[in-house]
Design brief:
Layout (H helix, E strand, L loop, with lengths): L1 H28 L7 H23 L5 H26 L3 H7 L3 H13 L5 H19 L8 H26 L4 H19 L1 H10 L2 H25 L5 H8 L2 H13 L4 H28 L17
Helix pairs in contact: 1-4, 1-10, 1-11, 1-12, 2-8, 2-9, 2-10, 3-7, 3-8, 4-12, 5-7, 6-13
């Protein structure tokens, strides 16, 4: 019974994360488009920081010099991920964004391999090549075309996110960090950066936002950030890294489901083929990486605790 609860919770996190692309897209489209990216991100961070402050106090989480120092560094890289990702979502479809960001699953072990000079088997890179073909077909939509600026920004976000997750993994394996305190500091950093970059726009958005827009912000801050972090942190300690990784790896499937069913996104035959290749390649690469890690030292991915706090 416990395993079913843990699986359901991790799957719930993947569902929430998959829905975040559509939620952000709807929120941006209902306001000033790309002009609302900074206010939306800032208010999302502010809401998450306030909620996590309550969690920190109630659970007596540690916010010491390690959490403050690394929270500042990792919070900055996390802001970079969300800025690229959200600007990208504004310039492409929610479905494409959710699929393209899934390349992080392949990019992360590749980045860690470059860092540690521990290489994954050739089959992993074969899967990565198939994923590249899938990306090319996906961004081509119904035919061959130049990727949109939004597509490229989401791919850039995937690269930065892979570096960010790799950094979290290496830091948390070497430094005794309280992940609740670390994540709280990261959200505070995001809120401060947003307020510094766009104070007037943020205040203007907050004073003019409709009830629906506030609901969208609350969902992104409390559902996609706070709930997902707390649920994931609880669940990954009660299951295997491989199982947690595979369940959380269903995120792009949910992004496609929400984008197609609710937003009416149309991939076209070529786009569908690209999506299938991309999803299949990332799933295969994930399994190869997990088997490689289980056989002994080498490249270790981020299927469990290292992911905590990596996706705001």
């Amino acid at each position: 019974m416990r395993d079913r609860r843990v699986d359901a919770l991790l799957l719930g996190v993947a569902v929430v994360w998959g829905s975040s692309y559509l939620a952000a897209k709807v929120l941006l489209d209902s306001s000033a488009g790309t002009g609302a990216v900074l206010p939306v991100l800032t208010l999302r961070y502010v809401g998450a920081a306030l909620a996590l402050a309550v969690v920190v106090v109630l659970t007596r989480a540690r916010v010491g010099r390690h959490e403050l120092g690394w929270g500042l560094v990792l919070g900055t890289s996390q802001v970079a991920v969300l800025l690229l990702e959200t600007y990208g979502v504004a310039g492409t479809t929610a479905t494409s964004a959710g699929l393209l960001i899934s390349t992080t699953i392949l990019l992360t072990p590749a980045v860690e391999g470059l860092w540690t000079r521990s290489w994954l088997p050739p089959s992993f890179f074969a899967a990565a090549l198939v994923a590249v073909v899938g990306v090319a077909l996906l961004v081509g939509g119904g035919g061959w075309r130049t990727p949109t600026a939004g597509d490229l920004l989401v791919l850039a976000a995937a690269v930065v996110r892979a570096c960010h997750v790799t950094a979290i993994g290496r830091v948390t394996r070497r430094v005794p960090l309280d992940l609740r305190g670390l994540t709280f500091v990261q959200t505070v950093v995001g809120a401060v950066v947003g307020l510094v970059l766009a104070p007037g726009a943020t205040v203007g958005f907050a004073t003019s936002a409709s009830a629906a827009q506030w609901a969208g912000l609350a969902y992104l801050a409390l559902g996609c950030s706070v709930f997902a972090f707390l649920a994931q942190s609880w669940a990954v300690r009660r299951t295997s890294a491989a199982r947690a990784s595979l369940l959380l790896g269903t995120e792009p499937l949910w992004a496609v489901l929400f984008g197609v069913a609710l937003a009416g996104d149309a991939l076209g035959l070529t786009g569908v083929l690209g999506a299938v290749l991309l999803l299949g390649a990332t799933a295969a690469g994930q399994r190869i990486e997990l088997r490689s890690a289980a056989r002994g030292p080498g490249v270790r991915g981020c299927p469990s605790g290292e992911l905590a706090g990596s996706k705001p």
